[in-house]
Design goal:
By secondary structure, the chain is of the alpha+beta class. Helices cover about 25% and strands about 25% of the residues. Strand 7 and strand 8 form a beta hairpin. The protein binds nickel (II) ion.
């Protein structure tokens, strides 16, 4: 089942997500729905807060980047309760987008390598090192479960420039070809 993707402006995107309990029910179904939702929206990563679940889970499938890096062909993974133990190297710029911010792309500085510890969908523990586009995606998604979105990493000036676009997203005034949930419009006060 595809789920509506939460748009910029909803407080769930700014909230630090909770750890997942091994025995928590509905996790497999959530993961399955997250993949389906991500594929439908043609994304390469999706975090649980983006479907309204404030949980420390994200899914990635970087296969669309296989032309840039053949290691990414079939790079499909689930990250539960991940911890970025270390990110290393000299920060580089890369153009990012986010399914919660349709039609916005920004160059974001991030470190080029990450060392990450996480549980997979069977709750097996892994510790792995990634670089390149994989490291980029993992850091973007990890930010989501910390309540950080990519535009939090641009300069105040750039943010002012895109303010109008951001307001339009929050109001649902965007052209988007996947299902989204926009924050409730402010109620007029008559008091
Ligand atoms: Ni995102």
């Amino acid at each position: 089942m595809t789920l509506p993707i939460i748009a910029y402006g909803d407080p769930v995107l700014k909230k630090k997500a909770s750890e997942v309990d091994k025995n928590q029910s509905g996790i497999r179904e959530l993961i399955e729905n997250m993949f389906e939702t991500m594929y439908k929206a043609e994304g390469v990563g999706l975090a649980a807060p983006q479907v309204g679940q404030s949980l420390r889970i994200f899914v990635v499938d970087a296969t669309p980047f296989k032309k840039d890096d053949e290691k990414l062909d079939g790079f499909k993974k689930v990250f539960i309760n991940p911890e970025i133990i270390e990110s290393t190297g000299k920060e580089i710029l890369f153009n990012e987008g986010c399914l919660s911010f349709p039609n916005i792309r920004e160059d974001i500085w991030r470190k080029p390598e990450v060392f990450i510890r996480y549980y997979d969908e069977d709750f097996n523990l892994h510790e792995e090192k990634y670089d390149g586009i994989a490291a980029r995606i993992l850091q973007h998604e990890y930010d989501h479960i910390e309540g950080i979105v990519f535009i939090d990493r641009i300069s105040p000036l750039k943010r002012r420039i895109i303010k109008g676009k951001l307001n339009s997203i929050a109001k649902g005034l965007v052209d988007v070809n996947y299902r989204m949930k926009f924050p409730a419009r402010k109620q007029k006060s008559y008091s």
